Amino acid sequence: MSWPNETPSRRSTVLSRNAAVATNDPTATQVGLQILKDGGNAADAAIGIAAVLNLVDPGSTGLGGDCFCLFYDNKSKTVKGINGSGRTSSNLTEQLISKRLSLNLEEGSAIPCDHALSITVPGAAAGWIDTVETFGSGKLTMNDILQPAINLCENGYPVYKFSAYLQRLNCARLKTNDLSFGDDLLEDGRAPNEGDVICNKHLADVYKKLGSEGKAGFYEGDVAKSIVDTVNGNGGCMSLEDLASHKSTFDDPIHINYKGINIWEMPPNGQGLVALIGLNILEELDLKKPGTVACFHQLIEATRLAFHDGIKYICDPSKNDIPIENLLSKEYATARRSMIEVNRRIDSLQSNIKLNAGDDTVYFSVVDQDGNACSFINSIYHYYGSGYVPKNCGFALQCRASGFSLDPSHPNFVGPNKRSYHTIIPGMATHADTGELYACFGNMGAFMQPQGHIQLMINLINFNFDPQAAICYPRFQIKDVEKADSVIYIEETVDKDIIEALKKLGHNMEVVSDMKRITFGRAQIIQVRKDQNRKPVLWSGSESRTDGCAMGY
User: Fold this and answer.
1) How many whole angstroms separate alpha carbon 552 and alpha carbon 226?
2) How many other CB atoms sit within 10 Å of the CB of residue 534?
3) ∠ Cα 497 475 108 (to 5°)
4) Alpha-carbon distance 380 to 60, whole Å?
5) Is-contact 72 78, C-beta < 8 A?
6) Span 258-357+444-552: which CATH code?
């Protein structure tokens, strides 16, 4: 099936023979493609894109947040990963949290995302540099890679429709006081309109430091001091040592074989584990036709089961053991699959752990002229993160500590020098028999992310959709993943009779339309297919619900 009738878009998949880029913003896509043409590889282009997206989508991403990277090396046919997530301060204790928040650390509570205690060490800057140093071409310096973003910061860029909408919708979250400079992300005190030309010279200055001084330009000196002053001055907890001691980790990705395709995810503290558990459960189910009541029901139930496990186990693996091998075994999948009933939803999937769900992130895919691929994701969790902006920096600080549980018995319990349950996950897929690249993919949006990964892979593998059709096809989202009676959002393009039938099975369905469809995330896919002569062609799709743009050459 190349273009299902139900697909609410007339976009075509972008085809190219040499290289491709898919991002959520046309300006970023153009920069990534130019870096490839200038001799950079997929990793180089990814970091150039990440820098531009901090500027053009400042509420979703940036140096104040975290990143994760999966890199496919075409020569060795291997997938490697970098965990660029930050940790809590070494001084953040449960006693300090309880005192400053005036609450008991009890089951079902979490750190508010707009409190400065939610701010963790930003890991993105180190993650960007580590990505270039570990996977980059070596032909471009960090200055070279950041220069297009610096030029746009200084000379201005025109704001696209959906980015302008999100900034206007959320600008009240930005805090302005003696130690937070939210106005630096506004234009004369207001969010931009579509077509407004915006600069960010403070961000340009930080990029110049990062390019010339490396990690020290961010984690030491004026930038670090500004971050610490903003966090501590507003009731948070962070020291200069917390920043100076930050390091990325280089983690072996986890994977499953799904119908002959190896699906790769980063291990915990990321939630890619949820996507793999869900796909394992679905592998032996009879998903005959997309868009049917049976198909939606099985997808929803498998995803609910996967989240039940994810919420139970995902945490900082340096602090707790996680039974990943067992959770990803085919035997475990068989046992979980047996819980799915044909005529009713499972009622017993309740988790008493509260996790604050963020809503915005950026994800992008790059495949270069040598066949390497970089799947990259960057986020500040909620839109504008915590709402705090350090002086002379031009970026907002994330609120990732709101992803901890405040239940002392849970492995994801908040504490000093810890990484929280992390929502952002890049995806990669390779052929299990040859190791060749199948697809570089992702779907941003908090707890929507593993749900999106599951739905995208089912669309590509089970139903043979092309990448753009796989992205455009109607999605569902389990909104409150920890609840047994969670709301299931579904797109308005799904037939009303199907929605009513799902309700009769016990699902709490709610139809989502228009601009609110951002809740289903922003997906990007670059897939490798063979032409009639068995030569590779890149098939690229980008999010039609927002400003997504795929290009190739």
Assistant:
1) 40
2) 6
3) 105
4) 6
5) yes
6) 1.10.246.130
Q: Which amino acid is at 339?
A: M
Domain ranges of the chain: 258-357+444-552
Amino acid 527 reads Q
Q: What residues contact 131, with CB distance under 8 A and at least 6 apart?
A: 43, 46, 47, 67, 69, 71, 82, 84, 374, 376
At residue 238's C-alpha, the angle toward residues 232 and 240, to 5°, is 110
Please give the Cα distance from 57 to 25 (Å, whole number): 8
Query: pLDDT tens digits, residue range 298-312?
Result: 999 999 999 999 999
Q: Which residues pair with 21 in a beta bridge?
A: 366, 551
At position 225, the amino acid (one-letter code) is K
Least confident of 174-183, 248-257, 401-410: 401-410
How would you label 392-415 residue by residue, b for 16+ Cβ within 10 Å and e otherwise?
Answer: ebbbbbbbbbbbbbbbeebbbbbb
Distance CA 435, CA 433 (A): 6
Q: Can you tell me whether residue 381 is helix, strand or coil?
A: coil
Contact 310, 478 (CB under 8 A): no
Count of residues in the chain:
553
Q: Name residue 363's beta-bridge partners.
A: 377
Q: How sure is the predictor about 104, in pLDDT bands with cuts at 50, 70 and 90?
A: low
Rounded Cα distance between 549 and 363, Å, is: 12
* pTM check: above 0.70: yes
Please give the C-alpha separations between residue 274 and each of 162, 254, 260, 352, 488, in angstroms, as whole numbers.
29, 11, 19, 18, 17
Q: What is the 3-state secondary structure (H, E, C) of 217-268?
A: HHHCHHHHHHHHHHHHHCCCCCCHHHHHCCCCECCCCEEEEECCEEEEECCC
